[in-house]
Every structure is written in structure tokens, then in C-alpha cells.
Amino acid sequence: MAQKKLAWGYTTGTCAQAATKAAMQMLFTGEQADHIQVGLPNGEMLTLELYDIKIAYAAQEDRLPSSVSCAVKKDSGDDPDITDGVLVYSKVQRTKGRERVLRGGQGIGQVTKPGLEQPIGSPAINQVPRKMILQEVGEACEEAGYSGGIEVEISIPDGERLARKTFNPRLGITGGLSILGTSGRVEPMSEQALIDTIRLEIQVRMAGGSRHLVIAPGNYGLTFLRDAYGIEEKAVIKCSNYIGQTLDMASEQGCKGILVAGHIGKLIKVAGGIMNTHSRWADCRMEILASAALRAGLSGKQSRRLLEAMTTDDALAMISDGERRMVMEQVMGQIQRYLEYRAGEEMETGAVVFSNVYGILGKTDLADDLLRKAVADLEQDGKK
Fold it and tell me: Which structural domains are found in the chain, ordered by start?
């Protein structure tokens, strides 16, 4: 059976752009609209429905409104997105002077840390949506022959509550959601959105003064780092399956050292040079473990037994404590080799591998030093 094609949606940036265009149109015509057509940054045209239109007049006898507010409902398509269905509002009003100002209203986050697209104190409205919103304002003013000032306020009434479930608090965006988007579209199940989030978190850390980072693929690693070393989740970059790309992005941002902490079920793949650890790209866990067993001096019969195991913990249970230590020495050496190969000479790398059954299984030579440096960077950043 053919796989159903997933539906794409549109970003909060597109919603803010469309609501602004509609509000500007109504501000200069006084005529209420129920739909608006906008051009996306990638050139596509999109027609969207308008909600909760409010038109205000400064005086009863005025022919044209003094302010207009309306909303567009976010549609994330088949992409799982916490903002799906929220109303994104734009309120526009004439002001004295000639300045055109974009503000963040209720539910829009405020930038509190360096390293993000906008300066500290600015509303979390990213560069492309900001450009598209102000472009709609400029085009509407030009068409109407208006040269006065305009204030645009973007808001998401439920944004502050929803933002608590996002990466925003970790990134230094407080009080609400971000207005995001580059193409204007939400691609379903997009990996790029997650990679972009990892890149942004690295940028924030670098801007805060950190030069050494701790990364973990998932919640197992976060829990391990907290329990074993007392490192809180907010101090760790969660890299999901994208270990190689996280190393690349950290190197590009000037990172001097990275410690990777993870469960053997994930990091055993790195010992085989696999830098995207998702099972759909590669598995080979038992093959890599069996190869390490052979290099450690275990017999061919013992090593072949590991190939039959369903999980890495099951495989480790098949050998003695001493054999396990020898096998993990080989695994850690291979992990270090491939981390160094991917990171290059400018960035130190290390790894800590653990098991929920056996605890810490292995550490590379630089692991403890990198952890100490990463913690020191975080403490120094906290003093600023």
C-alpha cells in the first residue's frame, strides 16, 4: 500500500504576516474582509481565513478606522506541533510621526540572552517573519498613499502557557512563544526543525561564553548526567540522533570541546562510525559489539553469541565482568577515533557510555577534563 502523503502547514510567521496584511487592508479601506491572500517567502501564494476581527474608530464621525485587529489560525498540517490551532493576532494602528514599529504583545516571548536572532529585550519574532510583516506594512502604506507612523503588535493569547512546553525557556526566551519561519511552510515531520533548534541552543551557549559543551542523545543521558554528576538538564544540549551534525555545528560556532554522554544502545553505533543513530539509518549494534569482543581477545564462539542478543544489555550479560571491561576499552577507543575524525583538530572530544543495568561502562581519556571545563563554563556564565 502506498504511503499517504503528509499534509504541510504554515508557520506562526506566515500567520502573523497574513493577519498584518489583512489588518492593514481594513485600516485603510474600512471594509471588513473574511479571507486574505499572502505570498510566502518561497514565492507560493496562500489564502487564509480571518478570525476575531475588531475595528476601532477614534471618533464616531471618522470614515476610516484608527486601529484594526484580526487573527489567523495556525495550521501545522501533519507535523506534530504545539502551536497547531492557535490564533495569531496582529493589531495595527496609526501613530504620530513616520516610524513603523513592530512589537510583541501578549504571549510573544522576549529575548533575554545573547546569541539569538534578535537582540536582548526584543520580541522573539525571527528575521524572516519580521521582514515579511514589515514588508506588508510598507506595501499597504504605499498603496494607500500614507506616510505616517504605524505600530504593529503581534500576540498569541495562549502563548505564555504553551511556551512552557517548548525549548524557549532553555534558550532564554521568556513569557511566550516565538514567531518563526523561513519558507513560510511547515514541512511534516521535519528533521530540519529539530536540527535548527540544536544549532540555536549551541549559539546561545557560545554567546553566553561557553566553549565546552555536554551533549546527550535523549532522556536516558539527561537522567544519567543528573544522577551521576549532578548536572541539571538545562546544562545539557539534547542532540537526539544527530551526533555528527551537532559536532559539526558546535565546531562551526567555535566550540573548543564536547563531551558526549549516552546509553550504550545509542553510542555503540558511534564506535562503528555511525553519526546519525536513528535505527532507520543504521543498526549494527551487535555486529560492532562482537567486533570489539574479537579485538579484546574473546573467542570467536563468545563473540558470535553476542550477535544473537536483542539488546546491548543482554549482550553484556553474556560475558564476565573482566571481559566486559576489555570489550568496552575497545568500544571507547573506537568511539574516540570517530569523534576525533568528525570533529577535526580544532575541537576536543570525549565520551561517557553507560548502561541502566551496569552503570558507567567506559570513559574516554578526556571525558573527565571536558566535563570539568563544561561545568566551569556554565558557572562562569551564571555569574554574568
Answer: 9-186 (3.30.2110.10), 191-382 (no CATH)
